[in-house]
TrEMBL record:
One of its GO terms (cellular component) is THO complex part of transcription export complex. Residues 24-358, 382-525 form the THO complex subunit 2 N-terminal domain. Residues 281-303, 1145-1332 are annotated as: Disordered. It comes from Sander lucioperca. One of its GO terms (biological process) is mRNA processing. Belongs to the THOC2 family. The gene is thoc2. Residues 855-918 form a coiled coil. One of its GO terms (molecular function) is mRNA binding. Residues 281-302, 1176-1192, 1219-1229, 1236-1285, 1293-1312 have a biased composition (Basic and acidic residues). It comes from the Eukaryota. This is THO complex subunit 2. Residues 1193-1218 have a biased composition (Polar residues). Its main location: nucleus.
Length: 1397
C-alpha cells in the first residue's frame, strides 16, 4: 500500500512507487550491464549512510535512542561499506559497533596523520637542500625581458624546474614575488605570470601577509616595493583586500585611539595658547614636552595600511583606496603628506582633459600630464557631468590637505568658475534641470574643501583671489552659509585645524596689542598675511576687541587695505554675525541707552563699507529683517552706513549758517551744510544705490522705517524706559530722513518714480504716516514738475520770462492735479470745508528750496573759496602742479555755486508766481477762521515743523509767506497766537530731537514777530492793510476792510508781550512739574529760542529763578538735566544785557495806586524774590496768580482805544477750555501774589455761573450780521442816530440766523467751552483820553473778562457787564452800545437754546 508503518511512535507517509521505480531502474541497468555492481552498491550504501548520519544528531541525545540507533547501523553493515562508516560516523559509535578498538587511540591516530600530511616538510624543498633548482628558477625570472620572452614561456620553464628538482610550489611563488619586488617596473610580465601560476588567492595572501609581518618589528621600515606589488595584485583582482587587510598593522582600534589622542593634544595646545601660564607651570610643561620627545625617538612600526593606501593611489586603484580610507577617521589618511600628494596626483590626471578644454586661462599653456597606463584607473573627465563620478569624492577625502598642491587647488577652482558661468549663461531649461544636481554637488563637495584648504595655505593671496572668483558667482546667502560652517564647524574636524585656530588667535592677539595709528602700515601687512588663510578667526577676534575699545576703529579700518576680495566678504559676514549675536544685550544695564558695543560696530560698518568695496546686500537685508521683526536698534547701522557712504548727516545741532546752507542746492549743502567736508562719496554712494536697487530694498526700508516709528512707541516701548523709547523713535525718524534724502539725491527720476507709489497708496494701503508719505513723494513731485516744465519749453519755443513762468504753472497743474484728487481720501470730508486739497498738497509738496534763496550762504561759501585760492597762491611750500589743481578745483566749485544760486533764484520766482495765482483758492473758511487755523495747525503746521530742522524753518517761513501773499481767510494773528499760547502739551509730547525742531520752529516764528515788534515802519509795511491782521474773525463773506478792524502797532506790541508772557508761563509750568521729559524738552526749546526770547527783564528773571532751582535739584539726581539747565542758565545770563523793562517792550503806564512792588507786576512770578522762594507750594505761590496781580492793580483806569482794538483780537481765540482746565491754569500760574481762599472761592463760583452766558455772548458777537456792525459804527457819529437805531439792532435775517444756529450746533462738542482770551495782552489798562475808547466795545468787554490785569471787580452775568461798564466807562455812548450788543447776544442765545431742545 501507500502507507508503511514502522515500529515506534512515528509514521511516514510517502509515495513508495517513486522509490521502487528508482530502485528498479537502478537494478535493471546493472542486469543489462550498463552499470557496474560496485558503483551501484556504493551509491546505495552512500544513501544509507546519509540517512544514518542525519539520524545521528537526534539519536545521540538520549540513551534509549542511542541503543536503537546502534542496532540500526549494525543491521546495515552487510550492505554499507565499513570505510564509509569510519569516515562519516563518530569514534564513539564506531567503538560500540566494534569497527574500532578504542575511540581515544583512533583520535590520536587521526591527529598524527593530519600533522604528517599538512605540517611535515620534506627536507629537499629547502633552498639549502635544493639550491641548484632554486638558482635556476631565480636565473629564469631575472633574465632580460625586453625580447620576445613572455610570461607563458617562463611559466613552462618554471613547471619543468619544479618537476625536475621537486620544488615546493609555494616556495616557488614566494621567490616569484621576491623577484617581482626587485623588478617592480615589470608589472605586466609578473602579474600575467602570477595570474597563470597561482592556484588559490588565499595562498597568495598568506605569503604576502608573511612578508608584511616580517617588517612589523620596531625600527623596521616596510619597503615601498612590497606595497607596490600588493597594490598591483589588489588592483588586478588577484587577491582580495579583506584577505590582505587582516595581515597589516596597526589594527583599526589603534588608529582610532591615535586620532583621538591627537585631537586631545591639539585642544590642549589650543587651551594653553589662550591661557595665562605662570613661570612655574611653564617649566613643568617643558619637562613634559622633553619626555614626549624622548618617547617619540623610539620609532614605532610603520603604518602598513597607509603605505598600501599610498601605493594604491600611485597606480590609480581608487576603489580599494577608498575602502581603506573608509576604515579610518576623517582626514586621518590624507593628513600624511605622501598620501595627500598621491591623491592630488590622481585628481590631476582625472581633471586634466576637462581643465584643458574649459578651465585653462587664455594664453596659459600649463604642464602636460601623462595619463596612467592602467586601464582600471579612474577615467579622465571629459565633461562636468563626469566630475560626479570620482573627482568630487576624491576632493572631499582630501579636505584641508589639498593645500599640499596649490596648483591642483587653482585648477579645481577655475573649473568651478567655468562651470558656474556655463550654468548661469545657459538658458535652456532642460540643460539647467540636468545641471541643478551638479551645482548642488559642486557646492557641497568642493566648496567646503576649498575653504578648509585655504586654512592651510599660508599667506597665499593669489589662491584667495582665485577662490573669490568662484564664490562671487553664488548669491550672498549661500556664501554666508559657507562662511558660517567655515567659522563654526571646520576647525573642530581635524587636530591640525584645531592647532591652526589656536595659532591664529595667538597671532591676532599679538598684532592687536601693538596696533596704533603710527604703525598702521606694518600692522596692516601682518593682518593681511594672517587673513589670507584664516579670515574668520582673525576678524572674530578683531571685532570682539572693537566692541570693547572703540578707539581701535580708525586704525583697524586703515589696516584693512591689504585684504583680498574674499576677506572683505568674510568680514561683512563676521560683522553681521556679531550684530546678530543673541547673547549680547543691545541696551545698557540702565535700559535707557543703546549698548556701546552696538554703537562701535555701527561706526565700524560705516567706515569699512565706505572705504572698501564690500557687498552691502547682506547688511541691508539684515537691517530689513530686523525691522520686519519689529526691532529698531539696528537702524543705527543703516544710519552710519548712509552717513559715511553718501555723506548725508542728520543732526539737530546745526548752526544757523549750516541750516541756511541746507536750504540751497546740492552743491551748497555739500560745501556748507554739513559739519565735515563731504568728499569722494561718489563711488560709495553709487555702490549703496546699486545694492538697494538690485535687491529691491529701497522702498521696503523706507516703509518699514516709517511704520516702525509708531511701532517703537506702541510695540517696543511697553517695557522700555521712556528715555530709551524716545531715543529709538528719534533714531528711526532720523534714519528715515537720512535714507529718504539719499534716495532723493541719488536715484534717477525714472528709478524714483518707478519705485515710489502715489500718496493715497502709500497712506491707505501701506499705512504710512502722512508726513513720511509726503516726505517720500516730495522729490517725485519736484522731478515730475521739472520734467514736464522742460518738456513744455521744448514744445513751445519762447524765451521770455513771462512765458517760462506760465509754462511752469501749467506743468505744476498737470503734475499736481492727480495729487489734489488723491489727498482727498486722506482725511474726512469735513476737513475740506475750510482747507482746499490744493492748499494742503501745496504745503506738503514744497520745500525751503522753493520759497527763498539763501544769498548770504552762497556768498559766504564763495568768499571761503576765494580765501582758499588766495592762501594757495601765497603758500610757497605747495608744488606748482598741486597749486594749479587746487586753484582749478576751487574755481570750479565757485562757478558751480554761482550757477546754482542763479538757477535757484529763477526757480523761486516761478514758485512764488505760482503761489500768487493759487492763493485765492486755498482757504474756503465755510466755518470760522478759528476752525480754519485749527485745521491748518493740526494737519499741516505741527506735523511738519517737528519732522526735520529744515521743515521747522519751512513751516515758519510758509506762514510768513501766506501772510505776505495776502491770502484770503487766513488770520496771521490767530495763527501766531495759537502757536505761542499753548505750547505745554506740544512740548510734553515731543522726543528730544523733536524738541530741537520745535524750538527752532518757535525761534523762526519769534524772529518774524520780533522784527515786526521792533520797528513801526516795518510793521506798517508788512502787516497793516493785510488780511492776516484783521481783528474781526468771521466766516467768508463778512471780511471788512475798515481801518478800524486792523490791529495798530502799539496794540500789536501788547499782544507780543502777551505771547512772551504765555511762553514764560508755559515754561515755568514745565520746569516745575518735576517730570524728566517736560524739563528736558522745555530747556531744549528755551535754548533754541534764546535769541528772540526772553526780551522782557522780569520774564527773564522768572525763568532764571526756575532754572536755578532745577540746577540745584538735579545736580546729583539727573546729570543730563543738570547739564542742560546749567548750559541754558549761562547763556540766559549772557542775554540779560539785551533785555528791557516791560514799559520799554510795550506802552505801559504805572497804576495810580499799587500795593505790589513794580518788579512783581505783570510777570509770571515773583521775580524779585530770591530763588529759594520758588519752592513754595502751589497754594501759596501759584494759585490764582493772575487774580492776585489784578487785585494789586484794582484802581487802574479803563482801557483806551488801542486796548479796545487789541480786545478785538481776543474775541475768537477758539481755545477749548473747560472750567476744570481754567482752574488748573490758574493754579499753575507761577509766582503770583497769594489771595485769600474765600475770595478765590467766590471768583470760581462767579466764573462757573458766567461760563455759559459768556460763551453764548461771544458766539453771538462773532455771528453779528454785517448790517448791524455798520450800524454800530454809525452810532459813533451822533448820539441822535444812535438812539434812533437802538431799537433796530435786534432783528436778524432768517438765513443768517439759521447759519448761526447751525454753526453753534457744529461746535457743541469742542467749541462750547471756547474762551476768547488767548490773544489777551497782560498789560494794565492805561489812563488815556476817553475819546480814544469805544471803537470795539465788545472786544473790550471780553478783554476785561479774561485779562489777567483787569480790576478785582468780577462779573458773572451779562447784566453784570452793564453795571460794570457804568462804573468804569462814564460815557453814554458806551452804555447804549453795551445794551445793543447784549440784546443781540440774548436773541442768539434764545434760538440756540430752542434748537438744542
Amino acid at each position: 500500500g501507500n502507507l508503511a508503518v514502522f515500529p515506534g511512535n512515528f509514521s511516514f507517509s510517502y509515495d513508495s512507487f517513486n522509490i521502487q521505480a528508482a530502485l528498479y531502474e537502478l537494478c535493471w541497468q546493472v542486469v543489462h550491464g550498463n552499470l557496474k555492481l560496485e558503483l551501484v552498491a556504493s551509491v546505495l550504501g552512500d544513501m544509507m549512510v546519509q540517512v544514518l548520519f542525519c539520524l545521528r544528531t537526534s539519536a545521540l541525545e538520549e540513551k534509549n535512542k542511542r541503543e536503537h540507533y546502534t542496532q540500526l547501523v549494525g543491521a546495515c553493515l552487510f550492505f554499507v561499506p565499513e570505510a564509509i562508516l569510519k569516515e562519516r560516523l563518530d569514534p564513539e559509535t564506531l567503538e560500540s559497533l566494534g569497527l574500532i578498538k578504542q575511540a581515544h587511540q583512533f583520535n590520536q591516530k587521526i591527529v598524527k596523520i593530519k600533522t604528517k600530511l599538512f605540517y611535515k616538510q620534506q627536507k629537499f624543498n629547502l633552498l639549502r637542500e635544493e639550491n641548484e633548482g632554486y638558482a635556476k628558477l631565480i636565473t629564469e625570472l631575472g633574465q632580460d625581458l625586453s625580447g620576445n620572452i613572455t610570461s607563458h614561456l617562463v611559466l613552462e620553464s618554471i613547471k619543468s624546474l619544479i618537476g625536475c628538482f621537486n620544488l615546493d610550489p609555494n616556495r616557488v611563488l614566494d621567490i616569484i614575488l621576491e623577484v617581482y619586488e626587485s623588478r617592480s617596473d615589470q608589472d605586466e610580465f609578473f602579474l600575467s605570470l602570477i595570474k597563470s601560476y597561482m592556484c588559490e588567492p588565499l595562498t597568495l595572501c598568506h605569503i604576502l601577509g608573511f612578508k608584511f609581518k616580517f617588517y612589523q618589528e620596531p625600527n623596521e621600515e616596510t619597503p615601498k616595493s612590497l606595497y607596490h606589488i600588493a597594490a598591483a595584485l589588489l588592483h588586478h583582482n588577484l587577491i582580495e583586500l579583506e584577505d590582505l587587510y587582516v595581515h597589516l598593522m596597526p589594527v583599526d582600534a589603534t588608529i582610532i585611539e591615535e586620532h583621538k589622542r591627537d585631537i586631545s593634544e591639539a585642544k590642549q595646545i589650543a587651551r594653553k595658547l589662550v591661557m595665562v601660564v605662570l613661570p612655574s607651570e611653564k617649566s613643568e610643561d617643558k619637562d613634559k614636552e622633553k619626555e614626549k620627545e624622548e618617547e617619540k625617538n623610539e620609532k614605532p612600526p610603520d603604518n602598513q595600511k597607509l603605505g598600501l593606501l599610498e601605493a594604491l593611489l600611485r597606480i590609480g586603484d581608487w576603489h580599494n583606496a577608498l575602502s581603506i580610507m573608509d576604515q579610518m577617521p576623517s582626514f586621518y589618511a590624507t593628513s600624511h603628506k605622501a598620501i595627500a600628494l598621491a591623491l592630488c596626483q590622481l585628481v590631476h590626471l582625472t581633471v586634466e582633459p576637462l581643465y584643458r578644454r574649459a578651465g585653462l586661462p587664455k594664453g596659459a599653456r600649463g604642464c602636460v600630464m601623462h595619463p596612467l597606463r592602467s586601464k582600471r584607473a579612474p577615467r579622465p573627465a571629459e565633461s562636468f557631468e563626469d566630475l560626479r563620478r570620482d573627482t568630487f569624492s576624491m576632493i572631499c577625502y582630501l579636505g584641508p590637505h589639498l593645500s599640499h598642491d596649490p596648483i591642483l587647488f587653482a585648477k579645481i577652482v577655475r573649473l568651478g568658475k567655468s562651470f558656474m558661468k556655463e550654468y548661469q549663461s545657459d538658458g535652456r531649461p532642460d540643460v539647467k534641470d540636468k545641471m541643478v544636481i551638479t551645482v548642488f554637488i559642486t557646492k557641497k563637495c568642493t566648496v567646503d574643501p576649498y575653504l578648509k584648504t585655504l586654512l592651510m595655505l599660508t599667506c597665499n593671496a593669489c589662491m584667495s583671489e582665485e577662490l573669490w572668483g568662484l564664490f562671487k558667482l553664488f548669491p550672498y546667502q549661500h556664501r554666508y552659509r559657507l562662511y558660517g560652517q567655515w567659522k563654526n564647524e571646520t576647525y573642530t574636524s581635524h587636530p591640525l585645524l584645531v592647532k591652526v585656530k589656536a595659532q591664529t588667535v595667538e597671532r591676532a592677539k599679538y598684532i592687536m596689542k601693538r596696533l596704533t595709528k603710527e604703525n598702521v602700515k606694518q600692522s596692516g601687512r601682518q593682518i593681511g598675511k594672517l587673513s589670507h588663510s584664516n579670515p574668520t578667526i582673525l576678524f572674530d577676534y578683531m571685532l570682539s576687541q572693537i566692541q570693547w575699545y572703540d578707539n581701535l576703529i580708525v586704525p583697524v579700518v586703515d589696516s584693512l587695505k591689504y585684504l583680498t576680495s574674499l576677506n572683505y566678504d568674510v568680514l561683512a559676514y563676521c560683522i553681521i554675525e556679531a550684530l546678530a549675536n543673541p547673547e549680547k544685550e543691545k541696551m545698557k544695564h540702565d535700559d535707557t541707552t543703546i549698548s556701546s558695543w552696538l554703537q562701535s560696530l555701527a561706526s565700524l560698518c560705516g567706515a569699512v563699507f565706505r572705504k572698501y568695496p564690500i557687498e552691502l546686500a547682506g547688511l541691508l537685508q539684515y537691517v530689513t529683517n530686523q525691522l520686519k521683526a519689529g526691532k529698531s536698534f539696528d537702524l543705527l547701522i543703516l544710519k552710519e552706513v548712509v552717513q559715511k557712504m553718501a555723506g548725508i548727516e542728520i543732526t539737530d545741532e546745526m548752526t544757523s549758517e549750516q541750516l541756511e546752507a541746507m536750504t540751497g542746492g546740492e552743491q551748497l549743502k555739500a560745501e556748507g551744510g554739513y559739519f565735515g567736508q563731504i568728499r569722494n562719496t561718489k563711488k560709495s554712494s553709487q555702490r549703496l544705490k546699486d545694492a538697494l536697487l538690485d535687491h529691491e530694498l529701497a522702498l521696503p526700508l523706507c516703509l518699514l522705517m516709517a511704520q516702525q516709528r509708531n511701532g517703537v512707541v506702541f510695540l517696543e516701548g511697553g517695557e522700555k524706559h521712556l528715555k530709551l523709547v524716545g531715543h529709538l523713535y528719534d533714531q528711526c525718524h532720523d534714519t528715515l530722513l537720512q535714507f529718504g534724502g539719499f534716495l532723493a539725491s541719488n536715484l534717477s527720476t525714472e528709478d524714483y518714480i518707478k519705485r515710489v507709489p502715489s500718496i493715497d497708496i502709500l497712506c491707505n494701503q501701506f499705512h504710512t504716516p502722512h508726513d513720511a508719505a509726503f516726505f517720500l513723494s516730495r522729490p517725485m513731485y519736484a522731478h515730475q514738475i521739472l520734467s514736464k516744465y522742460d518738456e513744455l519749453k521744448k514744445t513751445e519755443k519762447g524765451n521770455r520770462q513771462q512765458q517760462k513762468v506760465h509754462k511752469y504753472v501749467a506743468a505744476c497743474e498737470q503734475v499736481m492735479t492727480p495729487v489734489h484728487e488723491a489727498v482727498v481720501s486722506l482725511h474726512p470730508a469735513r476737513v475740506w470745508d475750510d482747507l482746499r486739497p490744493q492748499f494742503y498738497a501745496t504745503f506738503w509738496s514744497l520745500t525751503m528750496y522753493d520759497l527763498a534763496v539763501p544769498h548770504s550762504a552762497y556768498e559766504r561759501e564763495v568768499n571761503k573759496l576765494k580765501v582758499q585760492i588766495k592762501a594757495i597762491e601765497e603758500n610757497p611750500e605747495i608744488p606748482l602742479n598741486k597749486k594749479k589743481k587746487e586753484k582749478e578745483r576751487c574755481t570750479a566749485l565757485q562757478e558751480k555755486l554761482q550757477e546754482e544760486e542763479k538757477k535757484q533764484l529763477e526757480h523761486v520766482q516761478r514758485v512764488l508766481h505760482r503761489l500768487k495765482l493759487e492763493k485765492d483758492n486755498w482757504l474756503l473758511a465755510k466755518s470760522t477762521k478759528n476752525e480754519t487755523i485749527t485745521k491748518f495747525l493740526q494737519l499741516c503746521l505741527f506735523p511738519r515743523c517737528i519732522f526735520s530742522s529744515i521743515d521747522a524753518v519751512y513751516c515758519a517761513r510758509f506762514v510768513e509767506l501766506v501772510h505776505q501773499q495776502k491770502t484770503p481767510n487766513f488770520c496771521t494773528l490767530l495763527c501766531y497766537d495759537r502757536v505761542f499760547s499753548a505750547i505745554i502739551y506740544t512740548v510734553a509730547s515731543c522726543t528730544e530731537n523733536e524738541s530741537h525742531r520745535y524750538g527752532r520752529f518757535l525761534s523762526c516764528m519769534l524772529e518774524t514777530v520780533t522784527r515786526w515788534h521792533s520797528d513801526r515802519a516795518t510793521y506798517e509795511k508788512e502787516c497793516v492793510n493785510y488780511p492776516g491782521f484783521l481783528t474781526i474773525f468771521r466766516a467768508t463773506g463778512f471780511d471788512g476792510g475798515n481801518k478800524a478792524d486792523q490791529l495798530d502797532y502799539e496794540n500789536f506790541r501788547h499782544v507780543v508781550h502777551k505771547w512772551h508772557y504765555m511762553l514764560t508761563k508755559a515754561s515755568v509750568h514745565c520746569l516745575e512739574t518735576g517730570d524728566y521729559t517736560h524739563i528736558r524738552n522745555i530747556l531744549i526749546v528755551l535754548t533754541k529760542i534764546l535769541p528772540c526770547y526772553p526780551k522782557v527783564l522780569n520774564l527773564g528773571q522768572a525763568l532764571e529763578c526756575r532754572v536755578h532751582k532745577i540746577c540745584l535739584e538735579e545736580k546729583d539726581k539727573r546729570p543730563d538735566l543738570y547739564a542742560l539747565a546749567m548750559g541754558y542758565s549761562g547763556r540766559l545770563k549772557g542775554q540779560k544785557v539785551h533785555m528791557v523793562p516791560e514799559n520799554e517792550f510795550h506802552h505801559k503806564e504805572q497804576p495810580a495806586r499799587s500795593a505790589t512792588p513794580a518788579n512783581q507786576q505783570n510777570g509770571p512770578g515773583s521775580t524779585g524774590k530770591p530763588a529759594t522762594s520758588t519752592s513754595k507750594t502751589e497754594e501759596g505761590t501759584s494759585e490764582d496768580g493772575d487774580r492776585g496781580k489784578d487785585k494789586s492793580q484794582g484802581t487802574t483806569k479803563p482801557v483806551n482805544k488801542a486796548n479796545s482794538a487789541a480786545a478785538k483780537v481776543t474775541t475768537s481765540n477758539g481755545n477749548v477750555i473747560s472750567n476744570k482746565e481754567k482752574k488748573e491754569k490758574k493754579e499753575k500760574t507761577p509766582g503770583s501774589t497769594p489771595e485769600t481762599k474765600a475770595e478765590n472761592r467766590r471768583e470760581k463760583q462767579r466764573d462757573e455761573r458766567a461760563g455759559k452766558e459768556e460763551r453764548v455772548a461771544r458766539e453771538g458777537k462773532e455771528k453779528t450780521p454785517k448790517a448791524d456792525r455798520e450800524k454800530v459804527k454809525a452810532e459813533e457819529k451822533s448820539s441822535k442816530d444812535d438812539k434812533a437805531k437802538a431799537g433796530n439792532g435786534e432783528p436778524m435775517e432768517p438765513s443768517r440766523e439759521r447759519d448761526a444756529i447751525k454753526e453753534s450746533k457744529s461746535k457743541e462738542k469742542g467749541d462750547r467751552g471756547a474762551v476768547a482770551g488767548s490773544l489777551k495782552s497782560p498789560v494794565p489798562r492805561s489812563e488815556s483820553a476817553e475819546s480814544e475808547r469805544g471803537t470795539s466795545l465788545s472786544g473790550f468787554l471780553l478783554y476785561c473778562s479774561v485779562s489777567p490785569h483787569t480790576p478785582s471787580l468780577k462779573v458773572s452775568t451779562p447784566w453784570d457787564f452793564v453795571v460794570f461798564s457804568c462804573f468804569t466807562i462814564l460815557n453814554q455812548m458806551d452804555v447804549i452800545r453795551i445794551l445793543k450788543i447784549l440784546m443781540i447776544c440774548y436773541f442768539n442765545t434764545f434760538h440756540l437754546i430752542h434748537q438744542i431742545e
